Amino acid sequence: MRKPRLGTFGTASALAVAAALTLAACSSTSSGGTAASTGSTASAASTGPIVIAAFNFGESKILANMYADVLKKAGFDVSVKALGAREIVEPALEKGSKAGGVDVVPEYLSTFTEFLNTKQNGANAPAQASPDEAATLTAARTLAAKAGITVLDPSPATDENAFAVTKDFATKHNLTKLSDLATYTGPLVLGGPPECPQRPFCEPGLMKTYGIKFASFKSLDAGGPLTKKALQQGTIQVGLVFSSDAGIAAFGLQVLDDDKHLQNVDAVVATVNSSVVSAKITQALNAVDAALTTADLVALNKKVDIDGGDPAQVAQDWLTSKGLA
Fold first, then answer.
1. What is the pTM of this model?
2. pLDDT value at position 3?
3. What order do you get walking across the sheet with 27-28 strand by strand?
4. Rounded to an integer, what distance in angstroms lies between the CA atom of residue 196 and that of residue 173?
5. What superfamily would CATH give domain 11-158+265-321?
6. Domain 161-256, CATH number (from 3.40.190.120, 3.40.1170.60, 3.90.79.20, 1.10.3370.10)
């Protein structure tokens, strides 16, 4: 799973993983709006180099290189590090590059909010992320401020849990939205990661929010090739995918609209160590995210994940097309 959105990691496990693993992951230098209020009381901007972290999947590397390129254009000395899981990346962001960490991370609003929430308030803390973007952003900024992190403005682009069927299945049964499955009378097998039957945004949420009745659950992967192949082969009828996955179209699948808003809003958003925040950094990163759409993410992911393109070059080409390079 690219982002653990079906549940969250406890504070103890997050700190243990972060302590056990170093930040000496593969490092590479990237290729070459109006500032909005962030609700932060950040200190004066650093004059030193800016280090941007990426999670270990293509979309995050693309976003990190977009951020790097616009900051380089703004006059900063910038590098990109692919660090891996959030349990490593978030503590590094709290540290900042001056203390051996990183300064900027392209994040996902609800996932980041709940990671901080459980880290600061415990694994059983009431959720602070929701389908309400404004409320989630307020919660994110409050939690992040306690960690010395500033959350900038969310993008229109999102990468969320989604549920797909094949296009043929959707056409045959006139399905466009998840609520349509509540009246489907045939057997439905749901496929997804092993934790799906226990997680509120997966099988329990589909049953409670939409009244969908599943004949059984098939343990596969989190939106990966096993799930997509099982949909193609008809061994499952509904599968968990990610909304920005370019493989959805490549496998002949159709995402059903989350018309009752089961999923939390997971907009792309820049997170910055508060010690380096400045108007110049804020303006540059907000401009990228304001121009980005979910359709852009799907197209960019296809160029990297399916066509084998280099994330840095794909990022540079997109920025050029938007007049941001």
1. 0.81
2. 52
3. 27-28, 78-82, 50-54, 104-108, 268-273, 149-151
4. 25
5. Periplasmic binding protein-like II (3.40.190.10)
6. 3.40.190.120
